[in-house]
Write a sequence for this structure.
């Protein structure tokens, strides 16, 4: 089993969202990090299906005159 990569990263959330995450962490007696990691794992398939701004007409990958 490989060791977990524990890199420190700052993330910024709107105040109300951070409060909701904190409330859920308290309810589940878990850390904020644990809640965010579980949320990512639960939502990543949906998030990956969202089109990139580069996939849209006029996106960054198109050459502009």
């Amino acid at each position: 089993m490989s060791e977990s990569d524990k890199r420190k990263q700052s993330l910024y959330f709107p105040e109300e969202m951070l409060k909701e995450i904190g409330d859920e962490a308290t309810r589940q007696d878990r850390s904020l990090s644990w809640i965010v990691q579980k949320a990512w794992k639960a939502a990543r398939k949906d998030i990956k299906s969202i089109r990139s701004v580069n996939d849209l007409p006029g996106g960054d990958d198109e050459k502009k005159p």
Remarks:
- Helices lie at 15-28, 32-48.
- DSSP finds two helices and no strands in the chain.
- The radius of gyration is 17 Å.
- The mean pLDDT is 87.
